[in-house]
Amino acid sequence: MNSVALESTRTLPEAENTRLIILISCVATIGGFLFGFDSGVINGTVDGLKQAFHSTSAELGFEVASMLLGCAVGAFSAGRLGDRWGRRTVLLISSLMFLVSALGAGFATSSVVFVCARVLGGFAVGAASVMSPAYIAEVASARYRGRLATIQQIAIISGLTCAFLSNYVLAKAAGSSVGVLWLGQEAWRWMFWMMAVPSALFLLLLLTIPESPRFLVVKKRKDEALAVLERLYGAASAREKFAAIDVSLSEDHHRPRLSDLVSKATGKLRPIVWVGIGLATFQQLVGINVVFYYGAVLWQAVGFSENDALLINVLSGSLSIGACIVTVFLIDRIGRKPLLWVGSIGMAVTLGLVTLAFASASIDAGGKLAMSGTMGVLALVAANVYVIFFNVSWGPVVWVMLGEMFPNQIRGSGLAVAGAAQWTANFLITVTFPILLTSIGLAGAYGLYTLAAVVSIYFVVRSVQETRGKELEQMEG
To answer: Which of 134, 137, 173, 226 has the fewest CB atoms within 10 Å, measured from its CB?
Structure first.
């Protein structure tokens, strides 16, 4: 390692503007909040979509899943556009898309308009999912980078929980999701319009934060980069950090490009890229979105009423936030890798217990899942403990690592590929669950998620490298 790069790792804590770094990181995490809110809001609007657009089951399924069409494209494009236009600029564009999507989905008078609005929102979700952690990683000091980046997952779960809670309150105020609320508009439309408030706030606050200094160095905007580094770390460290970032880039200082992901020595995709894809994919293959997207169905199957099931969703979200807060205190102390493998073991055990509980169930005369009291309690407890293990480990840690693990030269491109893989896996898990439900049943579906959790243990132990305490300029790929 170049002596300049090593020198920069000893940033003087007393020179850092820690308050500013925390504030601008919190602004970036609003993108995560909107990511969660946009993902969760659709759950309360299904009856409204049926009534407004007279959709068939197939059309309704497409309307509900349409956001995911834009997510993978948004994640991939954001990584590349972030290298070209800047991290903050891409976040600004995504905030505008969130705002237009929220208003458009609420005002939609046809299924086509609604789907277009949701796809636009999906693009914004995908972009925010990779750019928010990347921005945080590029402005924060290695000493507490993990803690700040973990806030991204807290923001995502908070957004999801707020969407569930907002839907519940609005539907209750109107009598149902299709009941008329303010200004003569149905409650389900207001559910979407609620997202316009944090979207507008995100847009306004992004105008007050600086561009990523590492992006500015890549673009050879030296004066601007130094000015931002001085604001963040103080004048004494700014030039050292600038030099370290500059040294970490490609020798010919060319603009980052997708082909940088291929090793010149082997002609194959760099190992670090495969690790990023693996992290992003396993995060979804363990089935977390089945719990969030189909949670109400699962709890009703255990014997709870529909209202109780919706409230349990809110409770699960609150539990997830608590688990993420634990990670905030642990991630920069014990590291990323230990949290991942402990999480994998915990998820494998709890998913196995859920599979066992569902394997003992039967189908009643009405076609619904029937479980004994003991197995019902086992399924409920094991599923919630699974959520805790996920949100102490794979939920926040994957976003932290994706934002920091790639070398400066390939961070945007690496995030583009990993983000696209993450959302593709998300889409596949979401759309295949109903198919698995009718073909191999709940026990079979959860058995597959259990197998993915078991394989993830081996993946973490063999392939994941610890990044705790390292400056971004020390990342190797």
So the answer is: 173
Amino acid identity for residue 117 in this structure: A
| Mean pLDDT (whole number) for 339-364 | 88
- Please say whether the beta carbons of 457 and 348 come within 8 A: yes
Nearest-5° Cα angle at 38, 35 to 43: 135
Number of residues that this document lists for the chain? 477
Q: What are phi and psi of 454, to 5 degrees?
A: -65, -45
> pTM of the prediction?
0.79
Pair 138, 86: CB distance under 8 Å: no
| Alpha-helical segments (H) within 253-410 | 271-285, 288-293, 295-302, 306-334, 336-359, 373-392, 394-404
φ and ψ of 457, to 5 deg: -60, -50
Written as six digits, the tokens of 442 are 């709940």
CA distance 25 to 140: 8
Which residue in 397, 416, 449 sits closest to 151, CA to CA?
A: 397
Q: pLDDT band for position 371 (50/70/90)?
A: low
**∠ Cα 154 160 166 (to 5°):** 125
CA dist., res. 457 & res. 51, Å (int): 46
Q: How far apart, in whole angstroms, are the C-alpha atoms of residue 262 and residue 274?
A: 11
Give the residues across from 269 on adjacent strands: 262
DSSP string of 183-213, one letter each residue: GG-BHHHHHHHTTHHHHHHHHHHHTTSPPPH
Identify the structural domains of the chain with CATH numbers, from first to last.
Answer: 14-209 (1.20.1250.20), 263-466 (1.20.1250.20)
Distance of alpha carbon 203 from alpha carbon 8, whole angstroms = 33
Left if phi > 0, otherwise alpha if psi is -120 to 50, otherwise beta: which for 441?
left
For residue 465, give the nearest of 394, 401, 390 by alpha carbon: 401
Say how far residue 415 (Cα) sits from the centre of its chain.
12
Q: What is the per-residue pLDDT across 30-45, written as a single tens digit (0 to 9) for each?
A: 988 998 888 888 877 7
pLDDT in tens, 99-127: 999 999 889 888 889 889 989 999 999 89
**Residue 44 · residue 168 · CB < 8 Å:** yes
Q: What is the structure's pLDDT at 210? A: 92
DSSP annotation of 256:
P
∠ CA 283-288-293, rounded to 5°: 135
d(CA 450, CA 115): 33
Q: Which of 429, 421, 423 is nearest to 449 (CA)?
A: 429
Mean pLDDT of 406-419: 85
- Other C-beta atoms closer than 10 Å to the C-beta of 271 total 14
Check whether 277 has a pLDDT greater than 90: yes
Look up residue 18 and give its two tokens. 């820690």
